[in-house]
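Reply to dn_fold:

You asked what the input looked like. This is it:
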Amino acid sequence: MHSTGSHGDAFEFVSVPPEHEGQRLEWFVRTLLPGLSRRAVRQAIEEGRVWLNGRPASKGDRLQAGDVVGIGLELAQARELQPNADLPVRVLFEDAWLVAVDKPAGIPSHALRPYERATVANFLLAVYPEMRALSAAGLEAGLVHRLDRDTSGVLLAARTEQARQALRHQFAAREIRKEYVALVQGAVAEPGVVRNRLEHDPHQPGKVRPASAGRGREALTYYHPVERYSDYTLLRVTIYTGVLHQVRAHLALIGHPVVGDTLYGGAADSLGLQRQFLHAARVGLRHPHTGETLTVEAPLPKDLALVLERLRGQERELYRAARPRRRAPVRRGGKA
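and this is what came back:
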């Protein structure tokens, strides 16, 4: 049955059968729309495109037999990713062949489903509509690599098919240098390199683990300490390979997880951060058309800069407290 919600949006309404009594709403919606990911369903609920008994639903709702669930028609009918220019994405570099943007934390790089509205790909399609032709349904727009949802920094996208192929070739040949800033737990005294191959963890979807010999994907992570604090170290991290969660997994493997990265052993709510302290600060490449060397940089976001400012302030206070006090000189009185 089709109808409209209180805001005029079109919905399809479904009565909950007895066998789904007590089920969480989000799982029931995935039963109705098996093509949607869990993240996509949750986002749809948060955006008010799923209703329960005549009201916008909450993802924690549990169902009773006979409840009426309303599903926004666009969830099932969307065929192409839609543009969205109203996202906090900043363009760092652009010409006729290439675009580099500064991705904020909390926004996915690309879309998984056509109805998604809050990804870097949505922004790119709004500003550079020609990118739609460079991926299926526009889900990746012209992006040639990705950053994790809660990692900020430089992202590259192509504006032409020729540029896309040239950039992909550079990535495959490990010619593109990606440099990150990471704050990790513990003291890192010397530069080093992690060479462990990585594979998907079959016990924890969305996570990687060290792979045995001959399995997984090759990954090399170079790290160099920049600043040391009492309990943390600021690292410059460089990679040429691009395995899922490579930097996060490798740093955790050497006993220094990224601050705030709970998936790989970082302490929760470290230093007041709402995400991991990982920022793609610089990307070096050959321009896909001219062949000239190009470096694109993204400044450290405010939330990460504030953490460093606070740590530096604490270190100054510790230094002052540890300094020995100078004794006042003894004044010897003479005869009047």
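Residues 174-323 form a domain with the Pseudouridine synthase fold (CATH 3.30.2350.10).
Hope that clears it up.
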